[in-house]
Please model this.
Amino acid sequence: MADTSHAPLRAQLQEERDRLLAQLRKLGHGPDPDLTFDEGFADSSQVTAERGEIDALAVSLSDTLEDIEVALQKFDDGTYGRCEGCGGSIGEARLEAMPAARLCITCASKR
Model:
C-alpha cells in the first residue's frame, strides 16, 4: 500500500501518540511526570486507591501507545496496512476506524 494514501492516518497516529504521552506525563508516568501525591494526606488508603486507579489507566494508555508506535514503525518499514496474522491487507475501513490495527478483520475475529 502506498504510504501517501495513508498520510492522513499517519498524521492521526502521530497526534494520538503526542496526546497519550501528555496524558501519561500528567498521570506521573513517562519522562517528566507532572503528578504528585501528598504523602502527608490523612487518608493514606485513599492515596493508595487513587494510585492504583492511575496506574491501571497508565497501563491501558501505555498499551495503546505501544500499538501506535508499532504502526508508525510500520510506516517507516513500508509494511503499514499488512496483517500480522496472515500477511494480507487490512481493509481501508478498518484502518480508518483503527489506524493502529495490527490484524485484518478475519484474523482479529479468530482471536
About this structure: Helices lie at 7-26, 44-77, 92-97, 105-110. The longest helix spans residues 44-77. The mean pLDDT is 86.
